[in-house]
């Protein structure tokens, strides 16, 4: 049985033309029209929640509550809130300018970028398709949407549903795999929003460069977790394991590896066992609130990692049993993992938790900083000296010398930084979400997604009466004009505290 109907390749340019014509005709400009589309998207998520849960159960065995909590509910809420906030976001801004420029009416207009392409992955395929779309609609863009072929039930479902709720002349889904995506990328788009892995992101960036298309790349990587020796190990273990079990570890912000003080490794593993027993009294393997691995290829990739690791698998409770028929792998803790281990090569994207014991915080930071910048860095600590150097940083020179303070905020780089929990940061709608370096660039969620699709179009309207104050600019320039026009060159520059250094 065919689960997903791919879009015929010859249709793809026509789809783009339809969307562009709609944009050019100004259909998406009125704010009331955009709000209606946003409410319609919220209605799609709300009315079709059962069908969405069903599709994600087929694609990923995703537990129903997980789908409602992390995918459907977020879209209902964020689409609705975006519609409610749109008037404020879209209002032109009038920056404060010197008196002599006030009459020019300097204004920042919020212009839609145009016709955009959204490409989403399989792991959270509902929210990661529609969250970027919320911003595109709010900003007044038209969009072609390319969901993942790896989650085919969900992709086909949203293709069937979208035209029932949204204006198909402005928003259309293109289904397919590499050939269809390649065709999409040959065309010119006014923006591309891609969520997925870094390998495909590079293909995309090359294709986009041909048209100078701006990009948002929401990528992944290995998110480290640092546990300070003084932190409550039971609480850290419970919060880390919970974060890791969401979608069986198949999420970009999953804790990837955990760094603990060597003297605390045993206690931490015992705490993980306790947490596991509470979450899954009868093992995760058969639990209805635990998901499966998406396909055989990822199941074999994870199984192979577990066979090749030189670390010690914790075997009594969290023993990492597998069910190949259902593509399930229990959460698996591997301790005493060392640099160079297969588990530390690439993003795990599955329910494996390697533990790296270290002898000092210095060693921990060196380990994290030797790797590409992660999407999120998790740190379990209540010690302000570990959180941030600046908290104790007076004067600068003392701070510079005192290498004994190992400071998370100032000495690492990551897309986001979360103290004392995992995953929960995703519930804060007011914070921007983005990577840095290998984990991507371009901000999203609510206002930040709106901004991504919005061009800040600067405008001035210089009245005839300004002519008097502009006289000096016209040649020929006498000494008075030269002095006035080059005035900025001679502005006094304040002394800084570090003058001369
Ligand atoms: P995927 O395989 O579903 O691919 C994503 C998109 O790229 C799909 O639409 C697919 O059709 C397209 N694609 C695949 N190969 C292509 C090619 N050769 N040429 C052109 N297009 C191609 O998803 P994935 O990449 O496996 O997703 C998982 C990755 O996404 C992980 O690395 C994860 O960390 C990351 N991710 C990041 C975020 C975030 O917000 N930062 C969220 C979720 C996932």
From TrEMBL:
Pfam families associated with the record: Aldedh (PF00171)
Q: Which domain of life is it from?
A: Eukaryota
- MF-aspect GO terms: aldehyde dehydrogenase (NAD+) activity
The residues covered by the Aldehyde dehydrogenase domain are 13-457
Transmembrane region(s): none
Alphabetical GO CC annotations of the entry are:
cytoplasm
This protein's record includes keyword Ion transport: no
Q: Which family does it belong to?
A: Belongs to the aldehyde dehydrogenase family.
Q: What is this protein called?
A: Aldehyde dehydrogenase
Organism of derivation: Boletus edulis BED1
